[in-house]
Specification:
By secondary structure, the chain is mainly α. The chain is built from 9 helices and 2 strands; from the N terminus they run ααααααβααβα. The longest helix has 17 residues.
Length: 194
């Protein structure tokens, strides 16, 4: 049987394969979905993305479906409970940042999509990488996004986290040219209208 060509980082784990094949690099417009993805990238800091994917269902359940208003209103009182929940990433700083980030998000929502997409000119950037080693961990755009997010009050939003978010949410197409998802994400980006 011929193996489907995928990005080198994906591996064979079904959870990673499903994420790679159906989510990573697909342009996202919805501000609430963008907020969730940015928060998940912040939760990943210092951990593997696999850990985040395994814990994402529980995070969605406990973090009010990543509803920013609910997190902003009830998150502070939920932190002690969250710290006891082994299904979550139990890092006080990240949990406190989640609550603060929800408040920051509400201050820029409903323009959050336009805000985020402005860093790539409102159009997905189509990269043409042949090897994983060519893919940067941050760019001038992710540095600018990080700076703006921090000015708006976001935490756990450094340039590397912002670039991973940009990859995740399809602001950039970083699938390798050899990957079977490169062309579909390229086509989605070419048809993109914010």
């Amino acid at each position: 049987m011929v193996k489907t060509p995928r990005c080198d980082w994906c591996g064979d784990d079904p959870l990673y394969v499903a994420y790679h094949d159906h989510e990573w690099g697909v342009p996202v417009r919805d501000p609430a979905a963008l907020f969730e993805r940015l928060m998940l990238e912040g939760m990943q800091a210092g951990l593997s993305w696999y850990t985040v994917l395994k814990k994402r269902p529980r995070m969605r359940e406990q973090f009010f479906g990543f509803d920013a208003r609910a997190i902003a209103e009830h998150g502070a009182e939920a932190i002690p409970h969250w710290l006891q929940d082994a299904g979550l990433i139990r890092h006080r700083g990240k949990l406190e940042a989640l609550v603060g980030n929800a408040r920051a998000y509400l201050s820029v929502q409903p323009e959050f999509s336009q805000f985020v997409w402005s860093f790539v000119g409102a159009t997905p950037k189509q990269n043409r990488w042949r090897r994983l080693q060519q893919v940067p961990s941050q760019t001038a755009e992710s540095v600018a996004m990080s700076r703006s997010l921090r000015q708006a009050g976001f935490r756990f939003a450094g340039p590397t986290i912002c670039y991973a978010f940009m990859q995740n949410a399809g602001l950039v197409n970083d699938h390798l040219l050899s990957c079977h998802r490169y062309q579909p994400c390229h086509d989605a980006g070419s048809a993109w209208r914010l």
